[in-house]
Amino acid sequence: xxxxxxxxxxxxxxxxxxxxxxxxxxxxxxxxxxxxxxxxxxxxxxxxxxxxxxxxxxxxxxxxxxxxxxxxxxxxxxxxxxxxxxxxxxxxxxxxxxxxxxxxxxxxxxxxxxxxxxxxxxxxxxxxxxxxxxxxxxxxxxxxxxxxxxxxxxxxxxxxxxxxxxxxxxxxxxxxxxxxxxxxxxxxxxxxxxxxxxxxxxxxxxxxxxxxxxxxxxxxxxxxxxxxxxxxxxxxxxxxxxxxxxxxxxxxxxxxxxxxxxxxxxxxxxxxxxxxxxxxxxxxxxxxxxxxxxxxxxxxxxxxxxxxxxxxxxxxxxxxxxxxxxxxxxxxxxxxxxxxxxxxxxxxxxx
Length: 351
Description:
The protein is of the alpha+beta class. The protein has two domains: 202 residues, Gcn5-related N-acetyltransferase (GNAT) (Aminopeptidase), CATH 3.40.630.30; 147 residues, Gcn5-related N-acetyltransferase (GNAT) (Aminopeptidase), CATH 3.40.630. The protein contains eleven helices and 16 strands. The strands form two sheets. Strands 1, 2, 3, 4, 5, 6, 9 and 16 form an eight-stranded mixed β-sheet that branches. Strands 7, 8, 10, 11, 12, 13, 14 and 15 form an eight-stranded mixed β-sheet that branches. A hairpin with a 2-residue loop joins strand 10 and strand 11. The chain is globular and about 65 Å long. 37% of the residues are buried. About 2% of the residues have low confidence.
């Protein structure tokens, strides 16, 4: 048995075959749906065990940067964890996970987002990834100054506009041009798949916002459009919802909003939007406590001071979850700092 180790670029196809045998459904293949993960350029982060020339266990890692409410952070996503049936219950996944986390520590990665909440992850120190603020909005009929355009084949100038708008979001992933071009078709937005779509919102001909529409929900009271991702002018986005439901023959719009997005939450509340707090399905692991607090010290000196006041033996996982706003609130006794906001699930998330 060989490993844990990363793959060579020419071994990626064999790893995708293993992952597909565990996760694939009739309408999906993991290589197509997660092109940034199962890319030859990311092969070293496909951590695996091998026997007789074939992969038998796998942990997929994507590493990159986010912009949090406290500034840039180096993070990783972890998912597609699987073992071939005949090799299960031998501790292979745990072995590979520990190896992957050691590699990430060496790369000065502070946070790991995990696509699940299995006991396997909890035993390694991962904790529930927090709560999501989800709005349901029934837009009133309105005449809007914003024009909506459903786009199937994106022109370069439109993609450039979307990238520019996304780059202005205060909490976001840092995506390079090749990731945009790989993820939009992979996630079914452009070209559109299963009623997903890219919507450009224009004012006087200029793109001022965009929406990525997910698969609509068919409910007893009508169709609900699901907005997976958005960026740009908040007033234009809310105004555009009236045209969107009319265009798509829907009744309501559902979208996830960052808690710190005061402009959008106020606009939605003013127009009758209803907020629901739901639990994130994934988990988060604070991989390096000192690294995280050093990274945010300049923009959030209150966090650095708060960390310094904690006991030396304080549970690092719990500290991380407090900082990310998962446990309790900022009005607790003793007081806790205002949490850091990180990008939540939806849209072109990586794993």
